[in-house]
Amino acid sequence: MKLWSGRFTKNTDRFVDEFNASLPVDKYLYKQDIRGSIAHAKMLAKCAIITEEESKQIVEGLESILKEIEEGSFKFDISDEDIHMSIERALIEKIGPVGGKLHTARSRNDQVALDTRMFVKNAIIEIGAEIVTLQSELINIAQKEIETIMPGYTHLQRAQPVLFSHHMMAYFWMLRRDFNRLKGVFQRTDVMPLGSAALAGTTYPIDMEYVARETGFSKISNNSLDAVSDRDFILEFHAAASILMMHLSRLSEELVIWSSAEFSFIELDDAYTTGSSIMPQKKNADVAELIRGKTGRVYGNLMQLLTTMKGLPLAYNKDMQEDKEALFDSIETVKNCLIGMQGMISTMKINSEVMRQAAEGGFTNATELADYLVTKGVPFRDAHRIAGNMVRKAIEEGCWLTDFSIEEFQAESSLIDDDIYEFLDIGNAVRRRNMRGGTAPERVVEQIKKALKHLEKEKDWLQEKSGR
């Protein structure tokens, strides 16, 4: 018999039981549901709504159910509909009618809002820890490859020489923004809704502040209608996760390109690549490609919930049951992609000489020629034209700018002197970009020092929140 069956004269159809049930999905909220229920039972006794003895029996029963679930001996039944009713049914079976008092002053509507918020907060801490690990790996590579020069690209065309360490640190700062976005999501998720009941609040003299402390929330909801119908925090999580996945996808794309024979800038470790069933020579960057592919999956989860929520009147509607499957999927996907990226980054081989040779070709020092002429008093637009003429001539003759004699340079501009060769050297080109945020080695070292300080703050935040 269902716990809500009093108003009904017929059993629900078996199809309806299965179609209506969220238990196969929301059973993963069991820890949060039991923790919230224990806090609620203690509060009911504190407020003299139930007796201390009744509260004790309920808490002990819930702790026993938690142990059974974690040991794998708990029997889930699809007719229970969801994790809340599954646990409540088991509690009543275990301790008798007193178990039915647990649901006093609450609804499944505020109960699931509480459970989901607790779950998201914990997921943010776990994902944040994986972001920090990946950031650490990026810093390690930047420190090891501080002098490695590679071609920087725009439009996937060789543009100007940069340090590989500078390129890796660009992803550190992307991930820092991701971490900060998730911190913001955590802050707005950290609102305790239990006590809002079905939609209008409760008539019982409850202590919401006590429950908030017991469940680790710093704030309490201000409006019962909003509390049970709000899924903004899940939408924000999906949005932050989507941007994070976009960053991982961009890095994955570069790993795929760089590890190709056409580039050979890096070699991915055998542990993070796969082979072909027909072509023996193949070494495929499947982990990077899967991260790139799974990005669309997380985007889809965001769009699914936005679409679900867009037409719902206040307060709770059964449509909102569809929020959790996509949420759990995004959480698992993001964590796995971060772990996969950590492995690829930490084990890849850097072919620094190939990178430097690529930077020395492709006229990545053409801007240096223009800048050189500017130092001689030539307007930049004229300098740009002269440098462009030299590039065109070099292409026609099948050589690089540094292959030209001083006489050939002076044929384009009499202001060019022997120091042009020093100016065109790609190492010097990198070192000259010595403004804040530039690719000069000392500026990259400066970035790394700042990054390490930020990393310690991120670790402190994770420690603080995980200890709540």
Walk me through what this model shows.
The chain is mainly alpha-helical and 468 residues long. It folds into three domains: 5-104, Orthogonal Bundle (Fumarase C, Chain B, domain 1), CATH 1.10.275; 109-357 and 446-466, Up-down Bundle (Fumarase C, Chain A, domain 2); 366-424, Ribonucleotide Reductase Protein R1, domain 1 (Orthogonal Bundle), CATH 1.10.40. Helices cover 63% and strands 4% of the residues. The protein has helices at 14-20, 23-26, 30-46, 52-71, 83-95, 108-144, 164-189, 208-215, 224-229, 232-258, 286-309, 323-347, 352-360, 366-375, 380-397, 406-412, 420-424, 426-432, 441-466; strands at residues 149-154, 157-163, 191-192, 219-220, 266-267, 349-350. The strands form three sheets. A two-stranded antiparallel sheet has the order 1-2. The protein has a two-stranded parallel sheet with strand order 3-4. A two-stranded antiparallel sheet has the order 5-6. Strand 1 and strand 2 form a beta hairpin. The two termini are 39 Å apart.
How would you summarize this macromolecular structure in one to three sentences?
With 468 residues, the protein is mostly helical.
Structure characteristics:
two-stranded antiparallel ribbon, Fumarase C, Chain A, domain 2, 19 helices, Fumarase C, Chain B, domain 1, 63% helix, mainly alpha, 468 residues, two-stranded parallel ribbon, Ribonucleotide Reductase Protein R1, domain 1
